[in-house]
Amino acid sequence: MRDAIYSEWVPAGTFVKIMVVFVSAIILFVLSITFLTNVALQNPFWIAVSASVLSFLLLMFRNYRGLEIRVSDKMLQVNYGIFNHKKIPLENIVSCELAKASFRRYGGVGVRLGIDGSWAYTTSFGDAVKIIQRKGRPFVFSSNNSKQICNILNQTKK
Asked: In sequence order, what are the residues at sequence separation of 6 or more whose Cβ sits closer than 8 angstroms to the Cβ of residue 37?
């Protein structure tokens, strides 16, 4: 999508970063204790489990470290990691609204199904854009410039 009217990178929120650091520190602490107490030599299974969990956590954070938003004259594209790509033709957008990505509605950050039936790609509990489509569920995604995206989408529809 080279002819982008708008482009934005929304990094993972502070809460997510703090949780990754906290959980990684706990796993590293457990690994260091197993080495210091020679448990690693007696049962290497715990090293494999801890290292696997830490690797998985860091790969997941790397994959979901941010959201890429692009708007062209024909398409809205939101990419969240390797596997989550949402493309919505502008002609299928009924409306664009400002929204909040709350814990109460989505139960966390990431790729979520809200209690209101909407799909969400959220990086933090903050400002978001809600897209109402002609067919399908509403789609919500985090943005640092929600108002600007809605203005662009509403103007290109006219």
From this structure: none
